[in-house]
Amino acid sequence: MSGTSLVTARERALAVLGGEPDDATLRRYLHGIAGVDAVGLEQRAAALGTRSIKTTSKKWALDRIISLVDLTTLEGADTPGKVRSLVAKAMVPDPADATTPRVAAVCVYGDMVPYAVDALGALHGDPDDGRIAVAAVATAFPSGRSSLEIKLADTAEAVANGADEIDMVIDRGAFLAGRYGLVFDQIAAVKEACRRPDGTSASLKVILETGELVTYDNVRRASWLSILAGGDFIKTSTGKVQPAATLPVTLLMLEVVRDWHLMTGQRIGVKPAGGIRASKDAIKYLVTVAETVGEEWLQPHLFRFGASSLLNDVLLQRQKMTTGHYSGPDYVTID
Amino acid sequence: MSRLAVPKTYKLFIGGAFPRSESGRTYEVVKADGGFLANAAKASRKDARDAIVAARGAVGGWAGATAYNRGQVLYRIAELLEGRRAQFIAEIEDAEGATRAQAAAQVDEAIDRWVWYAGWADKFAQVAGNANPVAGPYFNISVPEPTGVVAIIAPQDSSLVGLVSAVAPALVAGNAVVVVASERFPLSAISLAEVLATSDVPKGVVNVLTGSPAEIAPWLASHADVNAIDLVGAGDLDWIDLEIAAADTLKRVLRPEQGPDAAAPTLDRIAAFTETKTVWHTKSLR
To answer: In B, which residues are within 8 Å of A313 by CB distance?
Structure first.
């Protein structure tokens, strides 16, 4: 689960860019990427959303969705108790059905990491081994409006508290102002702050906040920029801005990940977050991933759903498939 | 000059909108003499599920409205029904092969029943509730509370009056309703839905499904998020199986009724979809 080392990331970026990652070089590179065919993209996403997934495939998909969920609580009103109940749900999503898989991770604010780690106990670990990771949002989430020092301290504290994954936000203001070098340096610096004393490193998810980037072209550029700067994951949104994750935007980011993999052989993860509430929608994302980058990506270190209410809907669908009749919100937790 | 007929396609009423069936299916509604009357949507189990989700979302607001307000809203529906009297009469004439006078009598009866139930909205609690005498310095008060989401299989041999007689009492107490209309006479149900859509009833409080009750009823009866099921029009179905399915999730069940007096207006029909809540309160704080 340790992310790529910073040195190789930088070397790779230099090789791809053909120069120092400053504003001018990055601008030349990012603006040289072909523009997005918006109509084609939306049409492709809509077509992928029409697949009919039934019976055994649906059962597989529902279980896979659960094992890819970053169960999230990011409220000003979060309490240690709420984080503990979130962790309890992450460990045993459906107490009535022991075959229900665990979620991939819990995602909380940095100061809540110790409570999450404590509550997870022995189950804290790598989701690829069936354990549950702790992800923390950092870098002045959700706005990203603070100095680099504060962002780095925020990150380092979360990592020191035991976070396995850091969800950072990019400085959208700097990005929109064309200061790509600044955004690059900040991601690279946060990546450095993810390093632990033993040399391993927390995995870095870079939140683009696509709802604030406005255009598909910007989303594509920001995706490239984040990957070049060393992000292990690119994530659509904070969940605090509308629109959050949409299928076309996720498809676009997956295409960047696919192109990067073809170019360098490195696998980058994608995390749509915010606004995915129904199993039906989540299944569309699974289809999109499988058709764009391949089924290989449908595992916790390469694809995640950032979600809170999605899990309940998946559990209701699961109960429907097990019992043969429709279930209701009285049969899952209120959270 | 002759004019091309513009037949109306009757759709479902779910969450305040008029969607086609998710399944895309329709069925032909025929006149009493067998001639084509209209196409109606044939709801599937997923439409039933969607309707229940819509109803569940609407329960809080409707149950939380004051009884006085609910009465006003229900009375307003009667006003709108009166305004569309001619349309309902024509529909019933066509569908049931009734005479104009019979159709008019049915519409009048439906409106009168609606007004009767609307009047009970802010009076029912006084009759069904009670101040219980207890051996201590406490108020002990029992009040009827709405059950929640009520599924109804409407009487199958009547266009409008059966439907109104089944839906209105459930609404009075503050329940949200998913009703499966008469399979043979679904048009008045959808026209009533059009009335509801343009009245003050919050969306999702009433949801109307057309199609085969035999197909939809088992899904409603077994659905874990339905609190009560009124089988008044399910006499020709395997209603004992429905009752058994409903028992799995402890639903209230009203059994089928047959004949012209089916679902006659009574306070019992209102009470059937309420739960009694009893609260204690100290008489004084000294």
So the answer is: none
pLDDT in tens, A228-249: 999 999 999 999 999 999 999 9
Q: How many whole angstroms separate alpha carbon A159 and alpha carbon A87?
A: 18
Size of interface A-B (CB pairs under 8 A): 27
Q: Which of B44, B220, B223 to mutate to test the interface with A (most CBs of A within 10 A)?
A: B223
Domain harbouring B113, CATH code: 3.40.605.10
- The whole-model pTM stands at 0.91
Nearest CB among B49, B222, B224 relative to A331 is that of B224
Q: In which order are the strands placed within the sheet that holds B206-209? A: B206-209, B176-180, B149-153, B228-230, B252-254
CA A217 to chain centre: 20
pLDDT at residue B262, rounded to an integer: 86
Residue B111 pLDDT more than 70?
yes
Total number of domains in chain B: 1
Contacts with A325 from chain B: Cβ below 8 Å: 219, 222-224, 245, 248
Cα B239 from Cα B256, distance rounded (Å): 8
Question: Closest by alpha carbon to B214, among B187, B244, B186, B235?
Answer: B235
Distances (CA, A) of B227 to A75, B164, B218, B237: 33, 20, 14, 20
- ipTM, two decimals, is 0.86
Instruction: Set out the domains of chain A in order of their start, with CATH numbers.
Output: 6-324 (3.20.20.70)
- A63/A128 Cα distance (integer angstroms): 14
Q: Provide the Cα torsion B164, B169, B170, B174; round to 10°.
A: 120
pLDDT classification of A335: cutoffs 50, 70, 90: confident
A12-27 CB burial, b ≥16 within 10 A, e <16: bbeeebeeebebebbe
Cβ atoms of A314 and A308 within 8 Å: the answer is no
Give the residue from A313, A317, A321, A325 with the most B CB atoms within 10 Å of its CB, the best one to mutate: A325
**B36 in a structural domain:** yes
A58 classed as catalytic? no
Catalytic residue among A167, A232, A281, A313: A167
